[in-house]
Structures are given as structure tokens and as C-alpha cells.
Amino acid sequence: MTASIIDGKAFAEKVRAGVAADVSALKAKHGVTPGLAVVIVGEDPASQVYVKNKVKQTADTGMNSFHFELPADTSEADLLARVEALNADPAVNGILVQLPLPKQIDEAKVIAAIDPAKDVDGFHVVNSGLLATGGRGLVPCTPLGCLLMLQDALGDLSGLKAVVVGRSNIVGKPMAQLLLDANCTVTIAHSRTKDLPGEVKAADIVVAAVGRPEMIKGDWIKPGATVIDVGINRIAAPEKGEGKTRLVGDVAYDEAATVAGRITPVPGGVGPMTIACLLRNTVTATCRQHRLDPKAI
Ligand SMILES: NC(=O)C1=CN([C@@H]2O[C@H](COP(=O)(O)OP(=O)(O)OC[C@H]3O[C@@H](n4cnc5c(N)ncnc54)[C@H](OP(=O)(O)O)[C@@H]3O)[C@@H](O)[C@H]2O)C=CC1
Ligand SMILES: Nc1nc(=O)c2c([nH]1)NC[C@@H]1CN(c3ccc(C(=O)N[C@@H](CCC(=O)O)C(=O)O)cc3)C=[N+]21
């Protein structure tokens, strides 16, 4: 079998077109322009590229984009003051503080300081609590993007067996929650799982969010299963020349593609959908802040 490719890049373009249409309706009918603030602390080159993409795509949909680059030695107090200022600014509807943060800053404190109504990452305990109890908060972008691709590829997910490999607060746990809400039977695997290949083999849906290059092998996958690869790992690529690198996922793609029914590539899979969902969340947050129904803008 050769898996069909789930084209996250093309899907993300569709999502962004929907966002752009909503933004133009918000402007024309309600005089509201959504605004997204992205805060980055320090100069990690990978983060810089990613933030640049976000800023450009935000502006492309017609939203206001506010971009703050703070030095690597920024104090926790200064970052908290910046977040407070953004919380108070009515032109800012969404706030994203790029993670990880330098070690002098307590990430949990910063996330807790963001107004939950503007927390477009969905990382605040109010939003994770709402997700865990069936409410309608803001949902983390990466798992939301994965769910949208799964529903687009498979339709109703009811009764399917899903394994999520990884249990981070930003990907694994909210992903498992969304799959549970979609009526999957969900297993969450992690570094202490006893028989990881066996757990993966049992699943109709595999979501890999481990952060280990090509760890999930082709012969672990159930024939015909749908594989969503969240991992973004930059590895050395001597075949491209000295000092060159390339991106790979957490799944051994070439092997897995001979067994799976459908698979997301890296790059061009989950990554672009994450950014599209961030923009979608910003529109959702804007509508709620203005007491508008997002379905009837
Ligand atoms: N495409 C996108 O938009 C995004 C991609 N990512 C990528 O997704 C990946 C995961 O990110 P994130 O969740 O933040 O990572 P974390 O490092 O926070 O979590 C990794 C998880 O994988 C588990 N794990 C580690 N090693 C193993 C192993 N050998 N076997 C089984 N489980 C293991 C860990 O288990 P334990 O809890 O026991 O330690 C942990 O739960 C990374 O590659 C990251 O770059 C992340 C965010 C967005
Ligand atoms: N507060 C916060 N929220 C995040 O959502 C967040 C974060 N911090 N820190 C870092 C991770 C990582 N992440 C990515 C999103 C998109 C791509 C993406 O678009 N990737 C392209 C490739 C980009 C390239 O070529 O380098 C792709 O997969 O096709 C990558 C990584 C969001 N994160």
C-alpha cells in the first residue's frame, strides 16, 4: 500500500482564506479589525523564522499584526509588564508568547498572566480546564489543526482507536482530549509506555508528538492507519552539502508511507495548519470580545 498524502499546506491555505473572508466581514459590517500580538524573547533562529511566517500570514489575512522582539536577558517582570499592557490594549485581540522562554523566566507565570479571552494558544488553565470539561474556550492550535485534518480525511471519527504519542500540555494532552470529544477510544503513550510498537500497532489513528527524529517505524503501523506527524526536527543533511540540515518528523516517513492509508508530510503537514489555526483562533477571540457570533459575522 502507498499512503495518500494529507496536504497540510493546501488545507491551511483554505483555512486562511476563510479567516480572510471573516476578517473582511468584521471590518465592513462591524468596524472591527482583529489584532494579534506575537512576543518573542531572545534570538533563537528557528523561532525567528517561525515568528516571521506568523507575522506575514497574519497581515495577509487583513488582521493587524503586532510584533515584539525582546532581548534574551529580558527579566520576568518586564515580560509580565508587556503582557499586562497587551491585555489592556483593546486593539489586541490575541496574544502569543513564543515558547520556550529563556531560563530566568517562569513560563507558567507568563501563561497565567495572559487574559484567557486573548490566549489564542489555548495554554492558560482556564482554556485547558474548559477543554477538559467540555466548555468552549480557545483550543491549542496544533492539536486543533490535527483534528481538522483528521476529520477532513476520515469524516466521523466515532469509535476509531487513536494513539497519541507524547503527553505535553501544548500538544499531547489537548490532542487526546479533542480525540476523546470526537468519540475516539484514546490511548496516550509516553516515555514510560511499556510496549510502544504494540500500542501504535493497535491504532487506526496515530498522532506522533514526541520530538525524536523518525522514532516511529513503519512496521509499528497498522496497515491503512492514518498517521499525523507533529514532530519538527532539524537534522544534519550531509547529502545536501556540508553543514546543511533538513526537517524530519517523529515518524520514519518513507517506511510509514508504505503501510499507512494516509500520512502527513514534514514539512507541509501539521506546521502550516498550526499557523492557520492560530489565525482562526484570533478571529474567534475577536468575535467573543465583541459579543459577535463567529458563525454569523
Ligand atoms: N507542527 C507544529 O506546529 C508543532 C510541532 N511541535 C513538535 O512536536 C514535537 C513534540 O513537541 P512537545 O509536545 O512540545 O514536546 P515535549 O518535549 O514537551 O514532549 C514530548 C513527549 O514525548 C514523550 N517522549 C519522549 N521520548 C519518548 C520515547 N522514547 N517514547 C515515547 N514517548 C516519548 C515525552 O514523554 P514523557 O512525558 O514521559 O517525558 C513527552 O510526553 C516536537 O518535535 C516539536 O518540535 C510542537 C509544537 C507545534
Ligand atoms: N507559544 C507558542 N505557540 C506555538 O504554537 C509554538 C511555540 N510557542 N513555539 C514553537 C512551536 C513550534 N511551532 C511551529 C509552528 C509551525 C511550523 C511550520 O509552519 N513549519 C513548516 C516548516 C517551516 C520551516 O521550513 O522551518 C512546516 O512544517 O511545513 C513549525 C513549528 C509552533 N510552536
Automatic annotation (TrEMBL):
GO CC, alphabetical: cytosol
Gene Ontology process terms (BP): L-histidine biosynthetic process; methionine biosynthetic process; purine nucleotide biosynthetic process; tetrahydrofolate interconversion
InterPro entries with a match to the protein in the record: Aminoacid_DH-like_N_sf (IPR046346), NAD(P)-bd_dom_sf (IPR036291), THF_DH/CycHdrlase (IPR000672), THF_DH/CycHdrlase_cat_dom (IPR020630), THF_DH/CycHdrlase_CS (IPR020867), THF_DH/CycHdrlase_NAD-bd_dom (IPR020631)
Catalytic reactions of this protein: (6R)-5,10-methylene-5,6,7,8-tetrahydrofolate + NADP(+) = (6R)-5,10-methenyltetrahydrofolate + NADPH; (6R)-5,10-methenyltetrahydrofolate + H2O = (6R)-10-formyltetrahydrofolate + H(+)
Residues reported to bind NADP(+): 166-168, 232
SUPFAM superfamilies (alphabetical): Aminoacid dehydrogenase-like, N-terminal domain (SSF53223), NAD(P)-binding Rossmann-fold domains (SSF51735)
GO molecular function annotations of the record: methenyltetrahydrofolate cyclohydrolase activity; methylenetetrahydrofolate dehydrogenase (NADP+) activity
Metabolic or biological pathway: One-carbon metabolism; tetrahydrofolate interconversion
Catalytic activity, EC: 1.5.1.5, 3.5.4.9
Top-level taxon in the UniProt lineage: Bacteria
Ribosomal protein as UniProt keyword: no
Summary of the function given for this chain in its UniProt record: Catalyzes the oxidation of 5,10-methylenetetrahydrofolate to 5,10-methenyltetrahydrofolate and then the hydrolysis of 5,10-methenyltetrahydrofolate to 10-formyltetrahydrofolate.
Family from the record: Belongs to the tetrahydrofolate dehydrogenase/cyclohydrolase family.
Protein's name according to its UniProt entry: Bifunctional protein FolD
GN (gene name): folD
